[in-house]
Amino acid sequence: MREKRIFIKTFGCQMNEYDSERMLALVGEEYVPCEVPEEADLILVNTCSVRRKAEEKVYSFVGRFKSLKAKRPEVVIGVTGCVAQQEGERIVKRLPHVDLVLGPQNIYRLPEALEKIRRGRGPVVLTELKKDFKPPLIPATYDGARPVKAQVTIMQGCDNFCSYCVVPYVRGREVSRPPEDILREIECLVQQGVREVTLLGQNVNSYGQKEKGYPTFAELLRMVAQIKGLWRIRFTTSHPKDLSEDLMRTIAEEEKVCEHLHLPVQSGSSRVLARMNRGYTREEYLARVARLRELVPGIALTTDLIVGFPGETESDFQETLTLLEEVRFDEIFSFKYSDRPLARARKFEDKVPEEVKAARLWKVHEVQARITQEIRESYIGRKAEVLVEGPSETRPEVLTGRTRTNHVVNFTAPKELELKGALVYVLIKEAGKHSLRGEFLEILKGPGGGPDED
Ligand code: 5AD
Ligand code: SF4
To answer: pTM of whole model > 0.85?
Structure first.
């Protein structure tokens, strides 16, 4: 009998979302998820420390539970993820109402940690980072929610040490999961009704390189594509330096692999890229994009960008703007540089003033907003393949899903059709600020086709 309630708040990237699902599954026999922290017996805050702002949010969020803990001391409050790893014991010193601190590799020890706390042996701080860490196989349990899409971590950690980045220090060295674990986990998801899977890792395209006898990432994609009942495959994040010809060809050839690549460029200036330790130049990045577009015409590209990296001059920044115009990304995620503990660039002396960073970020937004809108408008009048995720959260009479190129589509369809989980064609009529809008045309596959249908 599950009597207790758990509330999880997840900050940061998709890897954290995945880890939160694992933690839910780990304590799933005892705890039922709840929507508000005030009703919970266990509160977990899964944190991100990739940028300074993200970390600050964590402290203010966890700080709010001080009065709750004073009223109900039996509530267990835990901080997990990257800030937990980075700060360790400092968290329980700064926030004494916290009972539990688990780094990303230690989230699997949640049941054992809870047991210790129950026996009065808290607070528990687990932040050990192992070089050869292998995450155990814990399929998510969706409590009958039947999601249409899901994510699967295929590797943990990062070996790249980009000079601005804290990830290698908080998530540890790169470790790939065994291919058979990954395949089993995806098969299990498909049996629960999942049709689209996103393979996750800090640097997915270097999957398997460090392990003997493992497939390459392109080979893994082809293995995943064999799974019956799975319709779509996505993956993120790819590093430009590891984008092989074989991977590009696999995207082109495997029908299930969607035509979208998230390929963080970070800067358009080769000089800045070298100081970032990215391992490619502007020209090399552009050459890979050109080759990719040759092999996969119409592929959507998205990217991450940092403005105001130490030493970034006005002319470096102009190169970032011209790169945006040349590549024409479908969407970008742009950030002002912030110093991170342990990351090498925090010691670079030529820091860019805050107001210059803000102005550059604004300019980047302005340029990209136009390009994104132009790309969205090019969909008008076209027929798009959409995997229907269900009713829109804000307008339940409207259905929502994504194109293969990862654009959100909201559309209307006859009420009597049960379209959640179906692959449909939608005629695109309008391009809004955040999504495309259209009308249902026809069903391509499903729903309810069962796991064997392909
Ligand atoms: N400052 C600003 N942005 C950063 N990112 C990573 N580290 C920093 C930092 N110190 C951005 C990068 C990365 C994304 C997840 O966050 O663009 O791709
Ligand atoms: Fe950070 Fe670079 Fe690794 Fe990405 S590739 S996680 S930016 S060190």
So the answer is: yes
